[in-house]
Structure formats: structure tokens, C-alpha cells
Specification:
Layout lengths: L2 E4 L2 E6 L2 E10 L2 E8 L2 E7 L2 H14 L7 H4 L3
Antiparallel strand pairs: 1-2, 2-3, 3-4, 4-5
């Protein structure tokens, strides 16, 4: 998985889904915010590597064909 940081936003692709994250941190705790299926998702994490690997496993295991096209690009 590759992460591109552009305009203080983190962008990554999971199979055919592009997600744009806003990552903020304070005292070794990170807050990851992104939009998916019209909902705002916030994840609290103390290990970004493990969290992004977990998200990658979730999104890569999803059946992408069943996801509406407008939901494949989030952010």
C-alpha cells in the first residue's frame, strides 16, 4: 500500500477504492478521519502502520463489484 500526502491530506488506494484521509495527532495518539458511503468515519489509533494495514485488509476483502461506483471514491 502506498500513501500520498497532498495538501495535508493522505490519499491511498485499496483495490479500486480511493480514500482521502485527514490525519491529526496529539501525544502519540492519531485521529484518522475519512468519508465513506456518505458517512464521516473517525478512527483513533496509536499505531498508524497497523491501522492502515487493517484498513487495507478490510477494503481488499470487500467485493468491489457490489459497491456503487459513486462510493468507490471517498474523501
Amino acid at each position: 500500500m502506498r500513501v500520498l500526502i497532498r495538501n495535508k491530506k493522505w490519499e491511498t488506494y485499496f483495490k479500486n477504492i480511493k480514500l482521502v484521509f485527514e490525519v491529526t495527532g496529539h501525544h502519540e495518539i492519531f485521529y484518522i478521519k475519512f468519508s465513506y458511503n456518505g458517512k464521516q468515519i473517525t478512527i483513533k489509533s496509536n499505531n498508524l502502520d497497523k491501522t492502515f494495514r487493517y484498513l487495507e485488509a478490510i477494503f481488499n476483502s470487500m467485493e468491489v463489484d457490489k459497491i456503487p461506483l459513486e462510493s468507490r471514491v471517498a474523501g
